[in-house]
Amino acid sequence: MAGAKAGSNVVCTLSCLNTRRSERSTKVLSLRTKVARTKNRSQQITYATNSEEVPFKVRAAQALVDVVPGEAGLRLLSSAFPEKIRTTFAGLMSSYKTQMLIALGDEALASKATTFIFKDMVKAYAGQLLGNPYEFPSYHRAIRSPYDYFQMANMYIGSLIDFDRSILRNPERWSEIQSQLDDGQNVILLANHQSEGDAAFIPLVTEVSHPGLGQRVTYVAGDRVVTDLLAKPFSMGKDLLCVHSKKHMNDVPEDKAKKMKQNLSTIKEMQRLLNRGGMLIWIAPAGGRDRRKADGTLAPDRFDPQAIDMMRKLGTKASAAKTHFYPLAMATYDIMPPPATSEKSIGEERVVNYTGVGLSLGEAIDVSSNGPWNQSTNESTDEATALANFVLAKVTEEYNLIKDCNIPGGGANPLPENSIRPPRAPSVPVFSG
Which CATH number does 29-52+135-420 carry? Predict the structure, then answer.
């Protein structure tokens, strides 16, 4: 099938590309030794396969993508997209090429990289536009065959990462998480959320230092990333627990009951998974992406106490496997900045930047009533709010240590204490003349 051919072409092309890699520091080599026992973890990971037969018109369109000549041909082909998508896609492609020029320093290479990556994306969009649009269940498993949506996201987003500016802080805590998962315990990451591409950054930034860990993350995903056509293929490559955010629950009033029903179904599924154990779940308790304030400053948005309290109750039930809670700071905003304000309509304008990203994992939090968050609680503050405020403070503390790496074209970016520069992920293609 054309989807299978697309996947094999990507693998073949990547193997033929120059495999130049950044020089590993002694610290990274030491870290890799510590986690050497994870080398076979990728074999433990299971994926979904889309077994539906690919319609002929989809296969024909995907075959056409393979033969269109260069960037101009791809732009001509994308002119067949519906009007709103066509305009957004054209703008995104131009923005992406501009950033590839910054990354590669050569106009021809920038065009080559953009064409290669966007051809793969157009094949994915063809399946949604011409075939049967994918509907996400409450618990979605990453689709890697016959089309590898996970690798598509790694190529597109990974090529925008300046690994020489990026930061992975407290890497030993990621090793700690790997051990906990291997022991059948659960880990819940309570994170701020800044970019549409946030689900790709843990896999990309930890790909070398902690092999296979990024492919074990299950993301609590809002309705927008599973309904927006340009976002859907990227979501199809990740394990997801699909929910509807409170921020968008009333966008379409007549759909509220249906959304609440799916949320209930997802919570039940989440409890089943936590009971089974070995789950690594990422959730953004703010319910949406961080936004710049009027003065231009950027910080993690307020966390919803109910979201964190729900995860605490699910993870500490007697039926659940032992569950650990970690605050995770993500400095990813400027690589794919969101609109200035939250929008109800689907199909936001996309712009991208070539820049560094940062991940900083805080110390595990004791969420029991005996935890430090509950030692000085004001009588007027309920426990859920006190815990949410405590987690947010920890995330903000970690965020302030890494935020400068995400400034496009920024100046000196020294490593914070106990941090490494993540080596360039091997899944990201290297383009040369």
Answer: 3.40.1130.10
